[in-house]
């Protein structure tokens, strides 16, 4: 049986040619892609994310355009150790373009060398440090010295392990510190709640105090009206007129007495001069008798005609031998001396049971007070000290406050039996200048009500200021408020430095001497002034404080302190030094800047933060 062969019909020549072309193109594209991928993978100093920038031009696969777009160079010229591009972007893996104005001097990343640092974290170094014979620690994999001149071992495993350990420790500190910070926030919140409750209570007390003051003012006004009517009625009485007349008479007599005292002193001065200058040798018996009589009167005797005769008689019969001695004796006795030696004059000047001060006070005293006081009580009251008459020396607006203080002070003395009954003069705006006991009591009650209202208002204002916490000062969550007023310090050998939150910084000598104030809290001020307390980088805002207006340096400015803050589990002063003249640099640590990560336990609104179960 004959076999038959089945044959296929041949393909058309046109179709066969098309397939041949397609295969050639595919092979070319695959080769180009493989070559391009190999070229990208072999580019030293280029970060993986930057490899797409180092692809040939699609229009001309053999060319590459500099990153600044200025010129195109052969793709093979990349990393050929010759700087072709003005921006130095063609030599990422060599130091050829380290002097590029646009690249190296401009600080652009195309003037840097990328170190992969597998096992650690990538890094960049300046391209001028590539193959310089030094193993740069930033490139722990040793890739910066690939020319073989220096063997740089790959230390990334060890470095990465140490780095991760340190990072974990910092993270642990941050996590623990953030919980303490959460406690600060909770404490500040409770402080605010307590203050708000106190403010609410004070507002009620203030309203009650206002009503009480208004009521006491009305009572005082009524008492003053009644008191004025009573005073006017008393002024119409005969007793008032009599006392007023007697007071005027006393004043006139005191004035007359003053004149007589002056004249008496003048006369005694004249007679003293005559007695001192008299010469007994003139034998003028009349003058001698008058002088001797005055001398006797001056010594406390009487001055009359009989005394003159008694004095003159022995003088006339004395012999001449005794005249000289007698004259000398008279001269010694008659010496005027001081006014205190004039016994008779002193007796005349004595005031007796009614001293001039007592009479003067009686004449100056309000007539209505004389009507109410008996003379004995009046004598005691007239001896009041300055404490009871302060209103006479003070401005009118201060008088009510001083009267209230004196009354309170006297009440304490009376209750403790230090003094017995006291009667004192009160200031008054009434017509006669005298208040009744009812008006005095009403005025004191009104003053006490006003004083109580002032104290409540002051306390309310202070608490309102405390509750209006500024986030730029106390933090966005008021985490700093719980630290206000607390102080920490560090002994640095010669000095101990003290830091008080929102207070002051102080230098204390350890070997005696005065403390020096280095500044008072002024504000938070980050290095980058564009950072705000509520912006994207708000955590950095609270990392630096400025303390100003400290004690002035000798021939210099006021001292100030720049305080840098870092996260830690406790509040502590870490270091202090004088960075510039009169400007101190201080480093402190506090949990207040330990901000929680995204996976931290949030702060509960009803209590302090509660740790996760695996942390119990």
Mean pLDDT: 76
- The percentage helix is 40-55%
Instruction: Give me the CATH superfamily of the domain at 473-615.
Output: Mannose-6-phosphate receptor binding domain
In quaternary terms, these chains amount to single chain
Low-pLDDT sequence parts: 1-9, 25-41, 101-109, 305-339, 374-383, 427-432, 599-616
**Number of helix segments?**
15
Q: Into which percentage range does the β-strand content fall?
A: 5-15%
Q: Structural class of the secondary elements?
A: alpha+beta
> Given this structure, which CATH class of the domain at 473-615 is correct?
Mainly Beta
What is the first-to-last residue Cα distance?
A: 95 Å
Walk me through this protein's architecture.
Among the domains are: 33-154, no CATH class; 473-615, Mannose-6-phosphate receptor binding domain (Cation-dependent Mannose-6-phosphate Receptor, Chain A, Distorted Sandwich), CATH 2.70.130. 45% of the residues lie in helices and 11% in strands. It has helices spanning 13-41, 101-105, 156-235, 238-277, 285-298, 305-317, 320-333, 343-349, 356-364, 367-372, 375-381, 399-415, 437-467, 471-474, 538-541; strands at 63-65, 72-74, 112-115, 123-126, 487-491, 495-500, 504-509, 516-524, 544-548, 560-567, 572-580, 583-590. An 8-stranded mixed sheet has the order 5-6-7-8-9-10-12-11. It has a two-stranded antiparallel ribbon with strand order 1-2. Strand 5 (487-491) and strand 6 (495-500) form a beta hairpin. Helix 4 packs antiparallel against helix 9 (356-364). The model is unreliable at 1-9, 25-41, 101-109, 305-339, 374-383, 427-432 and 599-616 (pLDDT under 50).
């Amino acid at each position: 049986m004959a076999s038959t062969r089945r044959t296929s019909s041949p393909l058309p020549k046109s179709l066969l040619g098309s397939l041949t072309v397609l295969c050639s193109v595919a092979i070319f594209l695959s080769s180009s892609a493989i070559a391009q991928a190999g070229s990208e993978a072999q580019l030293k100093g280029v970060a993986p994310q930057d490899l797409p920038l180092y692809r040939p031009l699609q229009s001309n696969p053999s060319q590459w355009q500099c990153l600044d777009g200025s010129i195109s160079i052969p793709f093979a010229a990349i990393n050929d150790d010759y700087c072709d591009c003005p921006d130095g972007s063609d030599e990422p893996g060599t130091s050829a373009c380290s002097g590029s104005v646009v690249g190296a001097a401009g600080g652009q990343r195309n003037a840097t060398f990328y170190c992969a640092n597998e096992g650690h974290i990538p890094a960049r170094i300046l391209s001028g440090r590539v193959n310089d014979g030094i193993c740069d620690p930033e490139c722990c994999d040793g890739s910066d010295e690939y020319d073989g001149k220096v063997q740089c071992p790959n230390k990334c495993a060890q470095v990465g392990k140490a780095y991760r350990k340190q990072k974990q420790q910092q993270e642990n500190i941050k996590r623990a510190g953030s919980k303490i910070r959460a406690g600060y926030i909770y404490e500040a919140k409770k402080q605010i709640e307590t203050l708000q409750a106190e403010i609410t209570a004070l507002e009620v007390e203030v309203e009650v105090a206002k009503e009480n003051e208004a009521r006491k003012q009305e009572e005082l006004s009524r008492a003053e009206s009644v008191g004025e009517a009573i005073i006017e009625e008393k002024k119409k009485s005969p007793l008032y007129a009599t006392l007023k007349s007697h007071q005027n008479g006393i004043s006139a007599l005191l004035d007359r007495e003053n004149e007589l005292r002056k004249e008496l002193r003048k006369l005694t001065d004249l007679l003293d001069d005559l007695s001192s200058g008299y010469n007994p040798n003139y034998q003028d018996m009349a003058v001698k008798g008058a002088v001797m009589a005055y001398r006797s009167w001056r010594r406390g005797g009487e001055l009359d005609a009989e005394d003159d005769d008694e004095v003159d008689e022995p003088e006339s019969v004395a012999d001449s031998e005794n005249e000289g001695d007698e004259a000398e004796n008279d001269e010694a006795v008659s010496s005027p001396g001081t006014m205190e030696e004039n016994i008779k004059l002193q007796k005349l000047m004595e005031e007796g049971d009614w001293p001039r001060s007592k009479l003067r006070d009686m004449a100056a005293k309000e007539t209505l007070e004389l009507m109410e006081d008996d003379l004995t009580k009046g004598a005691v009251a007239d001896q009041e000290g300055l404490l009871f008459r302060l209103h006479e020396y003070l401005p009118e607006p201060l008088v009510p406050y001083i009267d209230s203080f004196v009354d309170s002070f006297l009440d304490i003395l009376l209750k403790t039996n230090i003094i017995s009954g006291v009667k004192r003069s009160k200031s008054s705006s009434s017509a006669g200048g005298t208040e009744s006991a009812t008006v005095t009591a009403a005025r004191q009650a009104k003053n006490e009500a006003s004083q109580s209202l002032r104290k409540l208002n002051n306390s309310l204002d202070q608490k309102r200021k405390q509750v209006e916490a500024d986030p730029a000062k106390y933090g966005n969550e008021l985490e700093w408020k719980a630290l206000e007023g607390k102080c920490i310090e560090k002994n640095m050998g010669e000095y101990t430095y003290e830091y008080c939150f929102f207070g002051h910084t102080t230098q204390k000598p350890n070997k005696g001497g005065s403390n020096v104030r280095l500044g008072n809290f002024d504000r938070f001020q980050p290095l980058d002034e564009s950072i705000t307390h509520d912006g994207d980088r708000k955590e950095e805002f609270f990392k630096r404080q400025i303390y100003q207006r400290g004690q002035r340096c000798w021939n210099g400015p006021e001292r100030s302190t720049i305080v840098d803050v870092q996260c830690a589990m406790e509040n502590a002063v870490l270091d202090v030094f004088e960075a510039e003249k009169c400007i101190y640099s201080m480093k402190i640590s506090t949990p207040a800047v330990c901000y929680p990560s995204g996976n931290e336990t949030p702060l509960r609104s009803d209590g302090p933060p509660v740790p996760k179960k695996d942390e119990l």
